[in-house]
Write a structure and sequence with these properties.
Blueprint lengths: L4 E4 L13 E5 L6 E8 L3 E6 L8 H5 L2 E6 L2 E10 L8 E14 L6 E2 L3 E6 L4 E11 L2 E4 L10 E6 L8 E10 L5 E8 L1 H29 L2
Antiparallel strand pairs: 1-7, 2-3, 2-5, 3-4, 4-7, 5-6, 6-7, 8-10, 9-10, 9-12, 10-11, 11-14, 12-13, 13-14
Length: about 220
């Protein structure tokens, strides 16, 4: 059971990301690549890639998509992407940015749930035990570690039941909230594992509703 909807963008102002905002770049045959906005105007968007990567080819630049969250959902932005300086291939300018699609990821139901999760980070795949603050079919909020930075790629092993194998995947840190918790957006997760996670979330919601009904009966409200 999926709680996700994809809408083509309607006419209206393009909700561009602001300077210093984290974004993800999507190119054919590659994972989402973390980047940060350096300049943002209605005419163009300049972003800096945050991780080591090879220079994009002409076809990849032609099909490049900038992905970022907004109040409407997760926006996919397209335009004429160019590398202005061959000596700085990690700086990309997207000219004439247009909203191609808005993914209503808020339709992925999010629930509060403290579940154990193993986080593998860094080139040496250092293993750290943490736990989730909340969960959705599109990502999770981690209590730590506080060494994780925006744009960092992690692997995770999420335990939702003691008698079941962990849900495995890869994600990117896309935000750090005021309490230092790390918001992770999934970049790789098997569809079977995503369905297991969504089912777990659905069961949590159902339990909460039943608990609420019992409380109402108890106090006669």
């Amino acid at each position: 059971m999926m709680f996700r909807r994809s809408n083509r963008a309607k006419n209206g102002p393009v909700p561009l990301p602001e300077r210093s905002d984290p974004v993800l770049l999507k190119v054919p045959g590659s994972d989402r690549i973390p980047a940060r906005v350096l300049e943002s105007t209605v005419q163009s968007l300049q972003v800096a890639i945050l991780v080591p990567t090879r220079a994009f080819g002409a076809r990849e630049l032609e099909e490049l998509v900038v992905e970022y969250p907004s109040a409407r959902g997760r926006v996919h932005l397209t335009g004429a992407a160019v590398i202005e300086d061959p000596h700085e291939p990690d700086l990309i300018r997207v000219q004439g940015p247009l909203t191609a699609e808005v993914l209503q990821e808020r339709d992925f139901v999010r629930v509060s749930s403290a579940r154990p999760v193993l986080v593998y980070m860094g080139s040496g795949s250092e293993k750290i035990q943490s736990f989730t603050v909340d969960l959705s079919g599109g990502g999770l909020l981690l209590a730590g570690p506080d060494t994780l930075q925006i744009g960092e790629r992690i692997e995770f092993r999420l335990t939702v039941a003691q008698d079941a194998p962990p849900i495995k995947g890869v994600g990117t840190v896309v935000r750090i909230d005021s309490k230092g918790r790390r918001g992770v957006s999934f970049t790789e997760i098997a569809e079977t594992d995503r369905r297991r996670l969504v089912r777990f979330i659905f069961d949590l919601q159902r339990s909460e509703r039943r608990r609420g009904l019992r409380e109402q009966d108890r106090y006669g409200s």
